[in-house]
Specification:
The complex is a heterotrimer.
Chain A lengths: L3 H4 L6 H19 L6 H19 L5 E5 L7 E5 L1 H22 L2 H5 L4 H20 L3 H19 L6 H32 L4 H10 L4 H18 L8 H8 L2 H27 E4 L5 E3 L5 H20 L5 H21 L3 H32 L10 H4 L1 H15 L5 H15 L3 H27 L13 H19 L2 H9 L7
Antiparallel strand pairs in A: 1-2, 3-4
Chain B lengths: L3 H26 L29 H24 L1 H28 L13 H10 L8 H10 L1
Helix pairs in contact in B: 2-3
Chain C lengths: L2 H37 L15 H10 L11 H17 L10 E3 L2 E3 L9 H22 L3 H32 L4 H7 L6 H4 L1 H14 L11 H4 L9 H26 L15 H27 L7 H30 L1
The chains are: A mainly alpha, B mainly alpha, C mainly alpha.
């Protein structure tokens, strides 16, 4: 029998194969080095780097893997530059997360389950890599489940803490419900179009006349599944509790990598299924079967407003960052709802910068929590005086999250707003701008506690070792550099927006 | 046309009918003289104590979970086994990789102690305090046995 | 053949099988009692009829006339459903077991199997898995602590051994490249019995079969010294008889499966070389099938009265730490053997 359609596809899924091999290797090492597990983080790091090399190798390669049996023109996995860009974001954030975990007291205390921790992180990586390039609804569902199941366990990894178990359980319940809804939507879409492949569905939508109400129903159900992954309102309720309860390294990972994968899925789903062609100005021509624009505008504005206004009242820094990440999901959606290449470029730029600033903020919160055992904002009183390096770095990350010059966050927001203005969506742009002003309050409040409140007796100097300083500096450099010299990021983003089929 | 599955259906129908007859024929001829004592749950002649739906050992759940994992893998193995002779050496390699991963999963469960029925000493913090004071090693055995002993006591 | 003829033939086959099965089940109870008596140098039942030959009928009538006691605290619908499931599952499995080759009777070509389906093995596996429900429901619905523990134990034991059973069968499927019991029997031509080609799989399957049928040394679900009667503590009358019959029916199915999968089914090595007539050959083959089953049933009974019961942790250790790796090994072994000889 002919198996060439599988063997020929292997060329396109080298990163995924590397990630799967790493899972097996980690589990094996976990079993062999039962007592001393110091080697495992290094192996995990090596695995991520090898996977990353394969991802970089995929740049400028495009093609379908695992061809569909109905129509061998299309396949289950679409390898393209857009996917490669997001995969690189996943890989970079994974490297940071492994570094975080190495310095996290929460994780290092649990020596006996360290192998599981890294194996599950690789489970997430594999899920995300597949999710980013999946162009088949079944594969999307499967990879999303792989990603979710690994993250449920990781969210409850410090299982002896009540908060952590609560986080895991809540995450599981929300996840199960929304992926269930998504599966229901997928089944309706399959029933309408007769295929699970996004490209074939797109062709069917263009040629057949379908019941638009049923189609809208199925799309909204599918969007519920994706919206839960990117924690957009009204599917965001799990986010604060899970982010607060999960170990900080995992929180940071969920807020960046998991969200990136969700966005990549959303963009690919919309662009391959509902966009007929891209005109010379880079505007996407949507199929007139579903009003994506209104849905996304409403969801986006709702998400950022809810996120920002709820963040105002938070006293726990992890929780505050959780709400801020909800708000950022709203900003990121702005780049999508203009339906143009310009908006997509803005999303890619924003994600590159968001990766560094969000991870940086979480890392400093973790370093401080390692020492003080608390993330309460009152424990940050006078921190800027006692440990000035940490204070200044956190200030830079927070200012960047707000989107003020001269940090890179400003550039990210600038491109988003330019895209909005070019698409003549001034009202949306103004609401988003006002939201940014609101967000200024809660970010700056942290700075106030650090620099304008005098240190109490409780405030201690946070000792830093060389590795931690190095990690912080590595994350600071892009934030400051891209704030003034941003053309490389923009050029990079411009050359990585091609999605297969356009 | 009666297909092979149709024959199975007829067989199942006849089996159901037969079982129903067997169960209901008895109803017609047997006596029914219930008394209060007769309708009690059997507990060695004593009056039953507490709810009959007692908590049982959590390891039964662990066994069920492990079963779920491996039974799914049996299901995945069957198509491969069925077409094994068509694929030659390539099929052999694929199956070997699959079985190796499966074996790794089993080795993992084994090493982590999920296959052990006797788990040694379970020591929640409070119990540790008691142990320190008593200085006698207390082994938590099969809780099922404990409950049975409690029932008997 | 017209549809009517096919239907009539099918009905005849089904009725023949159900009757034969009922008789064998009843008489396996009788033989169990006689053999156990013989092993323990007792007499056993010898009063009803010649040497107690009518004892099974006396037992059935006794149970028919007994009062049916359903405890007040029990969940009554499930309590009634449980023996029904157990017996129904035990009966339905017979539909796919081939008893002999294709024969010509009165000018009709008849397959000596009720239904030659291409997924027969999956059908058997599915139904035996359903059997767990009967026992679990019985244990849970009785409202008795003994029953509950017996039911939970039974389900855990059965699912533990089902995995290694599945892997053992995978080895057989690899040899035959088919899931049809008829094709599997045909693939064991001559001395190519699976018991000889894959001895590990044979052993794991036989042991799993013991565990699946809850026969000693795996009868922990009804371990008398600990659990009174296990899951059927609160059953009486025909419901109890259902469980009792189901247990023996399962034993016969297990024997039939072992014969079909590993001992060549109705095949007798080199019988076609002897130049006997077609009718005689077929008769010998069908006879061989039943003789093999009889020998296995004797083996089941022999083991029961010779080997003491396991402890529960031993049972689980054997299931997961011995049987499961062995059955995996068997799959690899069959793969290698096929690789070398093909």
């Amino acid at each position: 029998m002919d198996l060439s359609f599988i063997t020929e596809s292997l060329y396109f899924v080298k990163p995924e194969i590397a990630a799967s091999a790493s899972i097996i290797l980690l589990v094996l090492l976990d079993l062999i080095f039962h007592k001393n597990k110091t080697i495992i983080p290094y192996v995990a790091l090596a695995g991520i780097i090898i996977t990353g090399i394969f991802v970089v190798d995929q740049f400028n390669i495009s093609g379908f893997a695992f061809l569909s049996t109905d129509n061998p023109k299309y396949g289950m996995i679409a390898v393209d530059n857009f996917g490669a860009f997001f995969k690189l974001i996943i890989i970079i954030s994974s490297i940071f997360v492994v570094a975080f975990s190495a310095y996290s007291d929460e994780i290092n205390k649990i020596t006996d389950r360290l192998g599981e921790y890294y194996a599950l992180i690789f489970g997430m990586i594999l899920g995300m890599l597949v999710l980013i390039s999946a162009s088949d609804l079944i594969l999307i569902y499967l990879s999303m489940e792989l990603l979710s199941l690994s993250s449920y366990v990781l969210a409850g990894f410090t299982k002896l803490r009540d908060r952590s178990s609560e986080a895991s359980l809540k995450y599981l319940l929300y996840g199960a419900t929304s992926t269930g809804m998504m599966l229901f939507g997928i089944s309706i879409l399959y029933g309408l179009t007769g295929s699970t492949n996004l490209y074939i569905i797109s062709a069917a939508l263009q040629t057949q006349s379908l019941n638009l109400l049923t189609l809208a129903f199925s799309i909204i159900l599918i969007f519920a599944g994706i919206g839960y992954k990117i924690s957009s309102a009204p599917f965001h309720f799990w986010t604060p509790d899970v982010y607060e309860g999960a170990p900080i390294s995992i929180t940071a990972y969920l807020s960046v990598a998991s969200k990136a994968a969700g966005f990549a899925l959303l963009i690919r789903f919309i662009k391959t299924t509902f966009v007929t062609f891209v005109d010379d100005n880079g505007n996407w021509q949507l199929l007139q079967v579903f009003d994506w624009e209104s849905l996304l505008i409403i969801i986006s504005l709702l998400t950022m407003t809810l996120g920002n206004f709820t963040a105002l009242w938070q006293r726990n820094l992890k929780r505050m960052l959780a709400y801020s990440s909800i708000a950022h999901a709203g900003y990121l959606m702005l780049g999508l709802l203009v339906f143009s290449n310009q908006g997509l470029i803005a999303i890619l730029i924003y994600f590159t910068i968001y990766l560094f600033m969000n991870l940086g903020a979480f890392f400093i919160v973790m370093v401080i929590a390692n020492k003080t055992g608390s993330e309460d904002i009152d424990d940050y009183d006078g921190l800027g005086f006692k440990s000035s390096f940490l204070g200044v770095s956190l200030a830079i990350f927070l200012v960047s999250l707000t989107g003020l010059p001269p940090t890179a966050g400003f550039i990210g927001k600038l491109y988003l707003f330019i895209a909005l203005v070019d698409a003549k969506m001034l009202t949306v742009a103004i609401i988003a701008l006002l939201n940014t002003v609101v967000s200024l309050y809660y970010y700056i409040r942290v700075l106030k506690h650090m620099f304008l409140t005098s240190p109490t007796e409780k405030t201690e100097k946070i000792p830093l070792n060389f590795g931690q300083i190095a990690v912080i500096i590595i994350m600071l450099i892009p934030i400051l550099l891209f704030g003034v010299y941003f053309s490389p990021v923009v050029d990079l983003a411009k050359s990585y927006i091609t999605i297969l089929g356009f | 046309m009666l297909t092979e599955f149709g024959k199975i259906f007829v067989f199942i129908l006849l089996a159901v009918v037969f079982v129903l007859i067997a169960l209901f024929a008895a109803k017609l001829i047997r006596p029914s003289r219930p008394t209060k004592e007769k309708m009690l749950i059997y507990e060695c002649g004593e009056n039953p104590v507490g709810s009959p739906w007692i908590k049982f050992n959590i390891r039964f759940y662990v066994v069920a979970l492990i079963f779920l994992i491996f039974d799914v893998e049996v299901v995945l193995l069957f198509p491969w086994a069925l077409t094994y002779q068509d694929y030659g050496f390539y099929g052999f390699l694929v199956g070997l990789v699959f079985l190796l991963v499966l074996g790794l999963g089993m080795a993992y469960e084994w090493r982590k102690g999920d296959l052990d029925w006797e788990r040694g000493i379970i020591s929640p913090p409070i119990l540790n305090e008691i142990l320190k004071n008593k200085k006698a090693p207390l082994k938590i055995n099969d809780s099922e046995n404990q409950i049975t002993e409690e029932i008997k006591a | 053949m017209s549809i009517l003829e096919i239907i009539i033939i099918t009905f005849v086959k089904i009725l023949f099988i159900i009757t034969a099965m009922l008789l064998t089940v009843s008489y396996s109870v009788y033989f169990e009692r006689r053999i156990s008596a013989w092993i323990q140098t007792r007499l056993g039942p010898n009063r009803v009829g010649w040497e107690g030959i009518l004892q099974p009928f006396a037992d059935v009538f006794k149970l028919l006339l007994k009062e049916d006691i359903v405890p007040e605290k029990s969940n009554k619908p499930l309590h009634t459903l449980a023996p029904f499931i157990a017996l129904f599952v035990a009966f339905s499995t017979y539909a796919v077991i081939p008893m002999g080759p294709e024969v010509t009777i009165f000018g009709y070509k008849v397959n000596l199997v009720v239904a030659d389906v291409n997924i027969g093995i999956l059908y058997v596996l599915a139904l035996t898995s359903l059997g767990v429900y009967g026992i679990t429901f019985a244990g849970w619905s009785s409202g008795s602590k003994y029953s509950l523990l017996g039911g939970v134990r039974a389900s855990a034991q059965m699912i533990s051994y089902e995995v290694s059973m599945g892997f053992s069968i995978a080895g057989v499927v690899m040899m035959a490249s088919s899931l049809s019991p008829v094709a599997i029997v045909n693939s064991q031509y001559g001395w190519m019995w699976n018991a000889i080609v894959q001895p590990i799989g044979f052993i794991t399957f036989v042991i799993s079969a013991f565990a699946e049928t809850n026969r000693l040394p795996f009868d922990l679900p009804e371990a008398e010294p600990e659990l009174v009667g296990g899951y059927h503590t609160e059953y009486s009358s025909m419901k109890f008889a259902s469980f009792f019959l189901a247990e023996y029916a399962n034993m016969i199915i297990a024997s039939a499966m072992i014969v079909t999968l590993y001992l060549g089914g109705w095949q007798v090595p080199y019988i076609d070389k002897l130049g006997l007539g077609e009718t005689l050959t077929t008769l010998i083959q069908v006879g061989a099938f039943f003789a093999k089953i009889g020998a296995l049933i004797f083996f089941f009974i022999w083991v029961r009265w010779s080997i003491p019961r396991f402890r529960y942790d031993q049972l689980m250790n054997i299931g997961w730490k011995v049987m499961f790796p062995l059955s995996l090994l068997n799959v690899v072994w069959v793969a290698v053997v096929l690789m070398i000889f093909n």
